[in-house]
Amino acid sequence: MRVWLKALLLFGLMVATPFAIQAMIGRPPRWFDAAPYIPITDYIPSAQTLIYIVGVAGVVAIVFNYIFYSTELEKIHGWLKLAEREMNVILKGVDASGGKGRADDRIKWWNDINSKNPFSETPDKIFDLNEKDAANRGAPGGKAQMTAILLREIYDGDIELAQTKIEAEMIANDGKPPFVVAGLRNILGLDEFLAAKVQYEKDKAAGVVREEPRFSDFGVNWAALLLAVRLGGFPRDIAMTTGTAPNKTTVYNRDALELLTRVPRV
Fold first, then answer.
1. How far separated are the first and last CA of the chain, in Å rounded?
2. Can you tell me the distance from the alpha carbon of 235 to that of 148, in angstroms, rounded to the nearest whole number?
3. How distant is the alpha carbon of residue 99 from its chain centre?
4. E strand or H helix that includes residue 149
């Protein structure tokens, strides 16, 4: 159970207990006897009203807790957080700040194993790798782009469109699925779908005739997904650095996804 919900229920129990005792024994709690009279107390609801209010609040909290867990909102919420963290790991490679470090590491490694001074020349291979890093610096790459596309559809609650995108990529790559980050794999039911496809092919080869699995039969319910997105305030933790020093800027969440999925004009 979530911490805030536990605190709410505990608070309700603390408030309701003395009034419940009063209702059972027919007299106010003893701390009422020593309490000074304050005119504003005339506006405090009666004990029965307070018990009713706290009882209704408790029932609502319990029902909400049941719905939250029975519809797997807690799991979906965790998967969305995991997917955003994985996205940020990918986007670190988009940032240009790591390029110089990789180049320096390669040069140091070569100089150390050859016992040369820091100004010695490095082989062409290392030079080529550094040039490749420089050319790719700041490019979103396939992983970031695919993840951004899937996240965009997930945040809109369109799980079937995200699944369709994966199926299209599989058709274009001889059945090989594209890169999908942890969290999104769970939401989309990708691993279960791939396992069902493998089993279907085995059964087909063995002469067993049955219906081919459909991707849309897997994954979480779209309504629960959309509710988890809205209640959790997603997207909320995606950050991407763009530009180069001294004009580097950081874009967040929807703006970052828009940059990654934008089709360049020709």
1. 53
2. 11
3. 28
4. helix 141-155
Q: Is the pTM of this model over 0.90?
A: no
CA distance 119 to 110: 11
Look-up: residue for tokens 């309490």? 35
Per residue in 68-117, pLDDT (tens digit) is 666 678 889 899 999 999 999 888 865 444 445 555 555 565 565 555 55
Rounded to 5 degrees, φ, ψ at 35 are: -75, 130
- The single-letter code of the amino acid at 121 is E
* Separation CA 169–CA 177 (nearest Å): 7
Distance CA 145, CA 192 (A): 24
**Whether the Cβ atoms of residue 50 and residue 15 lie closer than 8 Å to each other:** yes
Using alpha carbons only, what angle is made at residue 48 by residues 47 and 49, rounded to the nearest 5 degrees? 90
* Interatomic CA distance for residues 55 and 46, integer angstroms: 14
Distance CA 62, CA 146 (A): 39
Q: Is 115 left (phi over 0), alpha (psi -120 to 50) or beta?
A: left
Residues in the chain: 266
In contact, 50 and 19? CB cutoff 8 Å? yes
- Measured CA to CA, the distance from residue 222 to residue 187 in angstroms comes to 10
Tokens read off for 157: 């609650």
Question: Rounded CA gap, 186 and 243, in Å?
Answer: 33
Phi, psi of 259 (to 5 degrees): -65, -40
Do residues 242 and 251 lie in contact, with contact meaning Cβ atoms separated by under 8 Å? Answer: yes
